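Before any further analysis, we paired sequence with structure tokens, yielding the entry below:
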Amino acid sequence: MTVPAIVPAGAIKSLVASLLVFGTVSAAPDAQTFIGTITDDMCASAGHAQMQMGPTDAECARACADAHGAAYVLSADKTVYRLTNQRLSEQFAGQKVRVVGALDEKSHTIDVTSITAAK
């Protein structure tokens, strides 16, 4: 007859917590850095001159978002990426920025971690 091993309750909790953290970290996509200009999805390919919703690109992008429901996007090297954090994106409308986040290749969407002004 064998006697079952007794494992301290604290050790089991630590093991479970470690497995949960590892599973969360390993499932997260890798963050990437993208440099481009925050604009709106209506003007991203045609440019703000056509819409003329404001005297500057920033004002046009904000007006397109407010009046026409456009979404803020990142235009980088002739590629347009959707951005998940619209509130933060609005703060940088019309500016060259550095966006850090995970890219969903299928939807061309960046799950934004941070946006900072680029030099």
